[in-house]
Design goal:
Layout (H helix, E strand, L loop, with lengths): L2 E2 L2 E2 L16 H14 L2 H7 L4 H22 L9 H25 L4 H8 L2 H13 L5 H19 L9 H24 L5 H22 L10 H22 L4 H8 L1 H14 L5 H19 L12
Helix pairs in contact: 1-10, 2-10, 3-4, 3-9, 3-10, 4-8, 4-9, 5-8, 5-12, 6-8, 6-11, 7-13, 9-10, 12-13
Length: 313
């Protein structure tokens, strides 16, 4: 890792973009689409008839054939990226597999709004990692966006995310999952500069599935489902579309913006919980969702242009 006076050299982290980077419109759109798709994941987990870790296994395993076909169509065929990159992806897969096992267990023990909100504590952890990496404080607009996002999260917590002893176990599992998810995002960010998005996602999915299946069997979970629709939708929506768009964006969007975008998931999941399970939304929920949306607009509209490249004589 290279060091410079006053901070880290970003070139030591291939593919990493600092808070001063511009945001490509296509990558930003993919980021939002990915988070929208991921927000439906908790619903599909509840509808499935297998255990929490088993649901994670099927999410990854069923997605693999679709990812392989998509990678071939996009001219990003799966390949072995080398020992060092594969090691980083394996570490990312461990964090992701542990995240799925903890989060899926928490989904069954708390409200959808709670599970998604606590599960996305990675939002602030990943944004903070981006600030540390850049060795810089956020600009005024970025700071305002962070404050708006924090306010929105607090309003969601006060509204749909009901804090009570009844949901404590599920909330703690979701919180643990969020911390593990931050480890996954940081690991993927480290490797995205040298490996294309689909090969990264294919390897991470394969490694993660290989870790989750033995765990599900060892803990006596129901592994073989009686109905496949929810698991198939979970694989397509959360892994192929959701993670596919997110991994694509991670190579181009600053961690600060990725972290803020993750907070759209609790708002959407709270709406799903309201419509599907009568988990009532209050005016605080809607205000929280608006605050998070405003934070994203603010950080997107005030993204500075890319810095000009210096020309060597």
């Amino acid at each position: 890792m290279q060091l410079r006076r006053g901070g880290l050299d970003a070139s030591a982290f291939p593919g990493t973009r600092t808070i001063a980077s511009s945001i490509p419109p296509r990558a930003f759109a993919a980021l939002l689409l990915g988070n929208l798709a991921l927000a439906f994941g908790p619903w599909m987990v509840r509808l499935s008839d297998v255990g929490p870790a088993a649901a994670g296994f099927w999410r990854l395993a069923l997605a693999l054939p679709f990812l392989l076909v998509l990678a071939r169509a996009m001219r990003q065929p799966a390949h072995w990226p080398g020992r060092s990159a594969a090691a980083v992806i394996a570490v990312a897969a461990f964090f992701f597999a542990a995240d799925l096992a903890a989060w899926h267990a928490g989904i069954h023990l708390t409200k959808l709004g709670n599970a998604t909100l606590f599960g996305n504590v990675a939002s602030f952890a990943f944004a903070g990692w981006g600030l540390w990496l850049a060795r810089a404080l956020p600009t005024r607009m970025q700071g305002a966006a962070l404050l708006l996002a924090a306010l929105g999260s607090a309003l969601l917590m006060a509204g749909s995310a009901e804090l009570s002893a009844r949901y404590l176990h599920g909330d703690l599992l979701a919180l643990l999952a969020g911390l593990l998810y931050a480890g996954y995002l940081i690991s993927i960010e480290r490797v995205r500069g040298s490996v294309q998005p689909l090969p990264v996602l294919i390897l991470a999915s394969a490694f993660g599935a290989a870790m989750l299946l033995p765990f599900a069997l060892a803990t006596g979970e129901t592994v073989w489902p009686t109905q496949w629709s929810a698991l198939l939708l979970l694989a397509l929506g959360s892994q192929v579309v959701g993670q596919g768009c997110l991994v694509y964006a991670l190579g181009q969007v600053p961690p600060l913006v990725v972290g803020l975008a993750l907070l759209t998931q609790p708002a959407v999941s709270a709406l799903i919980g309201w419509l599907a399970y009568d988990e009532a939304m209050t005016s605080l929920d809607f205000l929280g969702a608006l605050a998070i949306g405003a934070a994203l607009v603010l950080v997107r509209l005030h993204a500075p242009p890319p810095e000009p490249k210096s020309q060597e004589p």
